[in-house]
Amino acid sequence: MAFDRNIVAALWIATSAVVPADETSARRIEFAKGSNGVELRGEVTGHGVLDYKLVAKGGQTVSVNLEAGTPSINFNVLPPGDGAALHVGSSEGNTFIGRLPVDGDYTIRTYLMGNARDAGLTVPYMLKVSVGEEGTGFDRTLELQGVSFRVVTTGDDAKKVHLRVTPEGLEVDNSVAEQEIAGTVTGAEVADLNADGSPEVYVYSRGPGLGGASTIHAWSSNHKRSMSPVQVPELGEAQGRGYRGGDEFSVVENVLVRRFPVHATGGPTGKTRQIQYRLEAGEAGWLLKVDRVTDF
Asked: Same structural domain for residues 149 and 288?
């Protein structure tokens, strides 16, 4: 699906791998020049195991997010040597953000469990890995109309994730916005939805676990003078009916578009819900307002 190309094109490079049953394979993670992230697409079959090797330094923060259509596939994060796993996906979910303890060669191991493994099924997945400087995870600077926003996440020893947005180029106040979030940042975009010549920044995060709920965090540059938060509505009862996560976001012309698969009691329905938001002035500041909801 090419819908999220604007989100990932600047940061991610892609590779693919297929691991047959009862075989262990390893791939070296490499980042494109100027990038701190990579998108890995692959498949694991039966008892097969695919290891991704990552060279990193102690103090750096690594973010790993696994996307798949079934909870049968998991990943572990293993330190250099024979130390205890930093993350065990079967019990801790499909998202990891952590500060690495030492320099060395880390392993991200993907594998199947349960009936999928025993039946020799082939399960495709997407693994997103990013490495920040010491103390950082997601780190991207976005610029539009002479204003830039640096979006950074940091993880602490309590496994809490902090999102920090630093503006530059505002005429009056370039104060930093910071908040604690659940899960991991999956993307960020800069736009001018209301076409007033003053940009906004939109940051997308996904909660932990399979089907973790996504959240939009947004700030406006207020006529290039100062930065303030944009109010974002939660999914209403009708909009959120059948929601199980799996969101994709993209700015398309003057609207922010959100898409996610629709589920029923028995599982996915095969339909996708699309919600379009417009930026409007509210009584207490800017807000994203739902403009259109479509199922297709």
From this structure: yes
**Is residue 151 located within the same domain as residue 270?**
yes
User: 27 with 102: CB under 8 angstroms?
Assistant: no
- The secondary element (H helix, E strand) that includes residue 6 is helix 5-8
Tally of domains within the chain:
2
What φ, ψ does residue 113 adopt, rounded to 5°? Answer: -135, 165
pTM given for the model: 0.63
Q: Which domain holds residue 104?
A: 5-133
Cβ atoms 75, 62 nearer than 8 A:
no
- Say if CB 94 and CB 209 are below 8 A apart: yes
**135-177 pLDDT tens trace:** 567 888 999 999 999 999 887 666 678 999 999 999 999 999 9
pLDDT tens per residue, range 258-283: 999 999 987 789 899 999 999 999 88
Other CB atoms within 10 Å distance of the CB of residue 28: 10
Angle formed at CA 121 by CA 117 and CA 123, multiple of 5 degrees: 95
